[in-house]
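Notebook, p. 212. Picked up where the previous page left off. The plan for this session was modest: take the two constructs that came back from the sequencing core last week, fold each one, and keep the raw output in the notebook itself so nobody has to go hunting through shared drives later. Recording the first one now, exactly as returned: residue sequence, then the structure token string.
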Amino acid sequence: MEPLIDEAFLKRLSNLKFIVKGRRKGHLSGAHPSPRAGVSLEFADYRDYTPGDDFRYIDWNIYGRLDRVLVKTFVHETDLPIYILLDLSASMRLGNPPKVRYAARLAAAISYLGLRELDRVGLFPFTDRLLPAIAPRHGMSQMAHILRTLHAVSPDGKTSLDQVLTEFVARSNESGLIFLLSDLLCKGYEEGISRLLHRGDEIVVVQILDPAELHPVVEGSTRITDAETQRHVDLTVGGGTLAQYTRRLTAHLEAIRGFLTAHRIPYFLASTDLPLDLLIHERLRAGGVLK
């Protein structure tokens, strides 16, 4: 199978970072590097050297100019748990390429960005319940684990976002940055998302749809089958039917956008014919998710 991401794709991600408004920072330090794995240091200021300080933090350029021994101080920046919630309901297998393939490639890119920044990344597939998950951990061995799982995904079953998000809050014990990747072709997401917000999570929603779902071209006699329930209906599709479909889809999308915008949650609608590079490098950056 064609790899989800390749070296050229990863190279194009190398200058990107997440923008996280809620990342908490600890105390200033310059004497000792943090012993905690996954904690990065951000330069803050200088202070006078005191016995016992680590020589590696002395700024020798300033010493040469000012004849003062100053030590660099840093802010300990706590590592951030990043949770990727991936919709694996049956409707995600539709399309060419399948919506789940597009979502999996995006999940791989998000994982790489987080792990490169020393954050913990976890993958939580779901249908109408949480499926076996990969708990958030550091390191590129985690990347390999996530990629193996993404390669093996097989969408099936129904979707119940409220139920899944409620279960997720109960199972995970730490707030973080959540990427919800789904086609959102379901009812009932407001309560679950409200639970995440109440806990203090930051949420990014990417709705992934096939071009044929956004702009159907079917006409004449046809059978339409619900991918999740397998129920079907025989229709004669004409201009009126398509117009009604467009109105209902537009209302559904506007309701999602309105709810998320009201709660200041970044929302992106991605058709699978939208190049992933464009979504990541332009839209996610313009939307304040990446810099």
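Okay, moving on. Second construct, recorded in the same format:
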Amino acid sequence: MSLDPRVKRFLDILAASQPRRTSETSVAQRRQGLSELLAFGGPPWPMERVEDRVIPGLAGALPVRVYTPPAATDGLLPGLIYFHGGGFVAGSIDTHDPIARALAHGGQCRVVSVGYRLAPEHRFPAAIDDALAATRYLCAHAAEFGIDGARLGICGDSAGGTLVAATCQSFAREGHAPLRVQLLLCPIVDYSRTTASKREFGEGHLVELATLEHDILHYLPPGVGAADPRVSPLNGLAAGDAAPARAPLPAPTPMRTIIHTAACDPLRDEGALYAERLQSLGHDVRYRCHAGMVHLFYGLGGVIPYARTALAEIGLELQAALAAQTP
């Protein structure tokens, strides 16, 4: 697999300007670095309306930002619950604002971006507890946000994909009314093992193995291992040598799963394997790997022109998945 030339030039510039090793980086520096990186998102997609609100969580109010796409009516629209990436220690509604806008614009849906608690101030399971609480609340109160509850999906990128996968597994096991779609962008679904893509792209390709190790060190409290299915949702679909799941495998639902990975991302193989496992269980899965791209490419439209093309295509997938009423 080879990098897109524009991506390689960007990575070379980035490496020259950020010589510090991830193992020596503080949480504050990790957060600042991600914020600076996402400033390369390019011009934000215009919105009809953007509104900051709060919803109840298990440990207090959770901030959310609601995005209404241009030319939207005041009636009920399809909706998407969005969880940002950042390795559970970084990222916010603000840093990932351009991605949320792109999803609302391309998907022609109202997007609710959720701000969940971060480590090390709030270690596992705070983030997944917040994700479950927020998703349950928004499903039950969709109309209050101008969303048609029968056309509601969920999306997460990177570590946000971890939260989405774990949330959907929990919903399936609880018999919760299915969401229309789960969209995973370069998701982290297995912290517990080293894949071929991690070995090949673990250094010099934006996200590094040292970054993943840095984040999980701050995220997991003593006594919780990386193989826990709530941390590594791939293990919730246990097969072969995978760690045993905590509960029976989720049964197929009408929910569609859309997974996008990047060819030069250390997380590529686990995203592909997650798609394969779900397909083997009879789920409706659409999978695509983007040639020459790195982790988080979709958020770097200011320096990677293809990112905006990819987001537009992802938006069309969302429109299709959210178009029909629940059977």
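Notes on construct two before I forget. The chain is about 35% helix and 20% strand.
Flagging for discussion at group meeting.
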